[in-house]
Design goal:
This protein is an alpha+beta fold and about 120 residues long. About 35% of the residues lie in helices and about 30% in strands. The chain contains four helices and five strands, in the order βααααββββ. β4 and β5 form a beta hairpin. α1 packs across α4 and α3 runs antiparallel to α4. The longest helix is centred in the middle third of the chain and has 17 residues.
Length: about 120
């Protein structure tokens, strides 16, 4: 798949994510996060802000590459991880995506009821 260069942003209401987890449980979590992402989030006193931030990051990345969440780009296509210093980065799982991991810049934040992600690809 040809990947566009671009930017994407997404904001998520953490309360919405919490309600989805309450309603669908593990099924929801495993639909939007990988095992590695889940392990990271479960280490937090309240995992929901980290879950919401990763959800927002995948949405923002899908916008940055011009696909949206679709058959071509799903929540399972990438992982949003953190390096040893805590800085988030993207690991591409779906080999059909023509994304150079080093070309993706990502920033995550959460405060109060909201999580936000900003992604820049290919600049």
């Amino acid at each position: 798949m040809q990947i566009n260069r671009g930017i994407g942003v997404d904001i998520v209401d953490i309360r919405r994510i919490r309600k989805s987890v309450e309603k669908y449980g593990e099924r929801f979590l495993r639909r939007v996060l990988t095992e590695t992402e889940l392990a990271y989030c479960r280490k937090k006193a309240d995992m929901m802000p980290s879950v919401a931030a990763r959800f927002a990051a995948k949405e923002a990345l899908s916008k940055a590459i011009g696909e949206g969440i679709s058959e071509a780009f799903s929540f399972e296509s990438v992982e949003i991880l953190n390096d040893a210093r805590g800085r988030p980065f993207v690991r591409v799982i779906d080999s059909s995506l023509d994304i150079e991991e080093e070309a993706v810049r990502i920033s995550l934040s959460h405060d109060g009821d909201y999580a936000i992600a900003f992604v820049q690809v290919g600049y």
